[in-house]
């Protein structure tokens, strides 16, 4: 299929990693993928076109819709998959005009106001990455529960090798991974206020282009290191004794065998163990919840650090196995491909036709009592019609060999002929 991914971002986000990971795997499966976004920091096999969704004035919105329509028409795009509010707004209008389906992924909590309730822009189907987001969409924005399905961030779990813990370092490395702007920045600041006073810890802050002014007081402390944005996050995770983060960061750490203290912009969960993993999954490890505020106190955090350092390799391996099952790239992409196909068929009312015959008889004297027959003369007329109108017959085995994703290729008029009830 021909799929357009739409993102809106000014710095690297979990949504971008999600989109790029999904795009590369879809390309591996024979799909054609294009990406439109303000920026694209991650390497990707897909063709990238710059489109500044973060410019939200009316004139900008109109130009975005025009550009999207041009891309859709010139590249025979069959499905648009948007990964942010800004991109989904413009994509919803473009898809409506073009008559193609829009699928959205919802990565975080959405603003609740009248315009959002009236013009939801969640497309034909939305994919929230955790259960709390789905609850929020249904309860607060009136999204039809039948128009959403929870699928977690697709991750190639084979890229993260489990490494058994070795308790050799006297000074433990705790890495806080995430942006320093917005609510995540507020959480990072609260964490540093507590952690900076704990002995025998080396604190790494990973993420964010610049250091906000309020963090300057921590910069000159001997036990705190600001690394900024880094490309080799998996290696930084392996170097750490504990990871503090939410969302994809928490998942990557668990897969690598590193203890995780889950805290996001919405909830403090604490040290993840096999017993509270489900709570972590539900809130995307603290990023989505309905709590009024996050409380990070010294006593709780210190206790969670001790719990994390005391997790056994058996505990950590069990966590990895449970997490792998939830985030497996290939299982999730299988489901997303089926969503693309289903929404396209429902929107375009187009699929390979299947004609179900029963018996072919010479004349009606051979008809039998059930009437499930066609005469050889009429059957010949059918076959001539199909041939003269450019139809090509295909079997299920041939379709699998052809690559079933190509069944929507308008250059071929595929059709299946079946004969039911075992008639030869």
Key words describing this protein structure:
15 helices; Rossmann fold; single chain; 424 residues; 18% strand; 17 strands; alpha/beta; 3 domains; six-stranded parallel beta sheet; six-stranded mixed beta sheet
What does this structure look like?
- The protein is an alpha/beta fold and 424 residues long.
- It folds into 3 domains: 2-147, Glycogen Phosphorylase B (Rossmann fold), CATH 3.40.50; 157-327, Rossmann fold (3-Layer(aba) Sandwich); 351-422, no CATH class.
- The protein has 15 helices and 17 strands.
- The protein has helices at residues 14-28, 58-74, 85-98, 114-118, 131-141, 182-195, 216-219, 233-239, 247-255, 277-282, 298-309, 313-327, 329-348, 376-388, 396-402; strands spanning 2-6, 32-37, 47-50, 79-82, 102-106, 125-128, 172-177, 201-206, 224-228, 242-245, 260-263, 268-271, 354-357, 359-361, 373-375, 391-393, 413-419.
- The strands form 4 sheets. It has a 6-stranded parallel sheet with strand order 3-2-1-4-5-6, with helices on both faces.
- Helix 1 crosses helix 13 (329-348) and helix 2 crosses helix 3.
- The longest helix has 20 residues, at 329-348.
- The chain is elongated.
- The model has no long low-confidence stretch (mean pLDDT 90).
Gist of the model:
The protein is built from 15 helices and 17 strands.
Number of helical stretches of at least 4 residues: 15
Helix/strand/pairing category:
alpha/beta
Low-pLDDT sequence parts: none
Distance between the termini: 35 Å
Shape: elongated
User: Number of domains in the coordinates?
Assistant: 3
Share of β-strand residues:
15-25%
- The number of distinct β-strands equals 17
Assigned CATH superfamily of the largest domain:
Glycogen Phosphorylase B
Report the sheet with the most strands, covering strand number, pairing sense and barrel closure: 6 strands, parallel
What's the rounded overall pLDDT mean? 90
């Amino acid at each position: 299929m021909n799929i357009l991914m739409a993102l809106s971002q000014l710095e690297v986000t979990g949504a971008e990693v999600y989109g790029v990971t999904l795009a590369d795997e879809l390309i591996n499966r024979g799909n054609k993928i294009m990406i439109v976004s303000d920026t694209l920091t991650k390497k990707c096999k897909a063709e990238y076109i710059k489109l500044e969704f973060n410019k939200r004035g009316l004139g900008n919105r109109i130009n975005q819709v025009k550009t999207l329509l041009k891309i859709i028409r010139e590249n025979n795009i069959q499905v648009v998959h948007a990964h942010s509010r800004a991109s989904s707004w413009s994509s919803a209008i473009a898809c409506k005009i073009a008559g193609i389906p829009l699928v959205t992924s919802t990565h975080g909590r959405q603003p609740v106001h009248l315009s959002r309730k009236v013009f939801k822009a969640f497309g034909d189907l939305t994919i929230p990455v955790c259960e709390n987001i789905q609850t929020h969409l249904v309860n607060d924005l009136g999204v039809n529960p039948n128009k959403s399905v929870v699928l977690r961030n697709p991750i190639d779990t084979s890229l993260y090798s489990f490494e058994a813990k070795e308790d050799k370092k006297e000074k433990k490395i705790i890495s806080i991974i995430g942006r320093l702007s917005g609510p995540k920045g507020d959480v990072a600041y609260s964490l540093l206020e507590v952690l900076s006073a704990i002995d025998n810890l080396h604190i790494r802050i990973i993420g964010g282009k610049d250091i906000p002014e309020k963090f300057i007081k921590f910069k000159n402390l001997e036990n705190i290191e600001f690394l900024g944005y880094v490309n080799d996050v998996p290696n930084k995770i392996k170097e750490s004794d504990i990871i503090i983060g939410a969302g994809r960061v928490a998942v990557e750490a668990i897969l690598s065998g590193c203890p995780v203290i889950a805290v996001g912009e919405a909830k403090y969960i604490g040290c993840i163990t096999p017993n509270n993993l489900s709570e972590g999954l539900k809130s995307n490890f603290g990023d989505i919840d309905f709590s009024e505020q996050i409380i990070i106190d010294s006593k709780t955090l210190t206790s969670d650090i001790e719990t994390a350092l005391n997790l056994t390799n058996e505990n950590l391996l069990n966590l990895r196995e449970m997490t792998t099952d939830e985030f497996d790239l290939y299982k999730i992409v299988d489901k997303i491909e089926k969503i693309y196909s289903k929404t396209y068929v429902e929107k375009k009312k187009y699929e390979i036709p299947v004609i179900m015959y029963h018996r072919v008889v010479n004349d009606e004297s051979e008809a039998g009592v059930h009437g499930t027959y066609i005469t050889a003369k009429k059957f010949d007329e059918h076959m001539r019609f199909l041939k003269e109108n450019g139809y090509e017959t295909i079997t299920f085995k041939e379709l699998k060999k052809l690559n079933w994703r190509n069944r929507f290729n308008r250059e071929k008029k595929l059709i299946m002929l079946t004969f039911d009830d075992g008639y030869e």
